[in-house]
Design brief:
Keywords: Iron, Iron-sulfur, Lyase, Metal-binding
Oligomer: single chain
Number of domains: 4
Pfam families: ILV_EDD_C (PF24877), ILVD_EDD_N (PF00920)
Bound molecules: FE2/S2 (inorganic) cluster, magnesium ion
Family: Belongs to the IlvD/Edd family.
Largest sheet: 5 strands, mixed
GO molecular function, one term: metal ion binding
Radius of gyration: 24 Å
CATH topology of the largest domain: Rossmann fold
Structural class: alpha/beta
Number of helices: 23
Shape: globular
Protein name: Dihydroxy-acid dehydratase
CATH superfamily of the largest domain: Response regulator
Length: about 600
Amino acid sequence: MTKMTEQVKQGRTLRSRLWFDNPDNPGMTALYLERYLNYGLTLDELTSGKPIIGIAQTGSDLVPCNRHHIELAKRVREGIRDAGGVAFEFPVHPLQETGIRPTAALERNLAYLGLVEVLYGYPLDGVVLTTGCDKTTPACLMAAATVNIPAIVLSGGPMLNGWWNGERSGSGTVIWQARKDLAAEKIDYKEFLAIVASSAPSIGHCNTMGTASTMNALAEALGMSLPGCAAIPAPYRERAQIAYETGLRAVEIVHEDLKPSDILTREAFENAIIACSAIGGSTNAPIHIAAIGRHIGVDVSIGDWETIGFDVPLLVNMQPAGHYLGEEYYRAGGLPAVLHELLNAGRIHGDVKTINGKTMAENVRNAKASDADVIWPYAKPLKKEAGFRVLRGNLFSSAIMKTSVISEDFRKRYLSNPDDPNAFEGRAVVFDGPEDYHARIDDPALNIDENTLLFIRGVGPIGYPGSAEVVNMQPPATLIKAGIESLPCIGDGRQSGTSGSPSILNASPEAAAGGGLALLQTGDRVRIDLRKGTADMLVPKAELDRRRVALDEAGGFAVPKSQTPWQEIYRSLTDQMAEGQVLRGADCYQRVAQT
Ligand code: FES
Ligand code: MG
């Protein structure tokens, strides 16, 4: 090891000096330097010990949810410059939730891999992670965890509230209702499009507590962004102001050598799990949190979500679990006000360190909510026990259910048997992927009625590469017209964080990986028990064994061919959802030494 590499390892000098000011290797130093001078940077800026801060840019024309980060980056640069650093902005592989096929989940690990190589391979002393749309936040945090150089999250913030006919029109939530109205022929296609578009009135990410708002809140709950960052709506002046402050702080954390591993501790992850229940967060959170944990070396199991998070009450009255949207949530105090309630109730670890150098308790001690109808007090919550239920049985080793969105109607229809109020049984109707579902859902031969449980399989990480957000299936149009707007849905895929459906989802292992769902047949009876946490096909073991042999003889559960090289690579390496859907072997990639 050269002298300078040794000094970098010991934290006595900046890693960018290995490129720009390395007496051990003058030839390479000259080569590195000359090209970064060619657009006007001076030798002095690159060699006088100023920290070089990357701005990992996730916004582009392809990623509208994060596109205003292109503007915000100007304020980040000014902050970096004012704090004595030099900014290098660079692109992250585009990750737009709604615009990419087959699934954005397939691309999360690709964006992660790309960002890891950039952070490792270029002369960066620290990095600002520009987050927003669903997968951009975990992809950036996973990469920062792996390379473990000083890193700070800058959220892009939600869109302004949408409005339609005087009612709040929220991202995703409005679609789920409007598509039922379209199926019931209450509206036509033109009106359907207009209603959906009303939910996206400005720059920013989804304005509901979908996966974007959830993951940005959890980045803050983990301690990786400045306090209050996540909830500021994208167009507000405070958003550009916090961009500037994030730039300032990015330089300081390099001087302090404050790394992700100093912040992303087991306690920080427990705080994130608890915060997720209190905000009514997305069912995608367990996958992403497990993935971030694996890359920093903290084990967060699917069981942790129930043992740590289930009995936490719902405090945030925001769609899909509640009523309001991002603007009210921000005005009521945002995540700091939620954490304030949780801290006073003794639910979160207050002594964990956060990115501003203070503890979580110091950050949120005085952050009292200003509107108790938007952020409810811990002692008088919107709902008790708002976390995820983890279910297990012969259908899968684990799946989750978001109990905070179980409606009164659902409760009455499925959970009101006085002898057995936590369990329901029904006849399974099984679809193999969304195309099969769309082709057959209205087929009268399926005999779908209110005692039917809808299953979808072949939509997990391997089956529909990345895993599709399709488990919240709507019933046949005839049932919707008769007033039955939802049926219990179960599957090895995911659903949008904006969906208010209490589906049983994220089933692991998926059918394509040999999970029990592959053995299920239309007509089987299935029993779900929410108290015991079980989900089982009521099919004799001998019959299941027979089906398993037949499936193996047929070559296993059929999945469609890969259409791109990355799909093939991804399928051969991905873990299941319960493990975070990371690439197998990726745990050992953490490069703690910053050389
Ligand atoms: Fe990008 Fe929801 S689709 S944030
Ligand atoms: Mg989504």
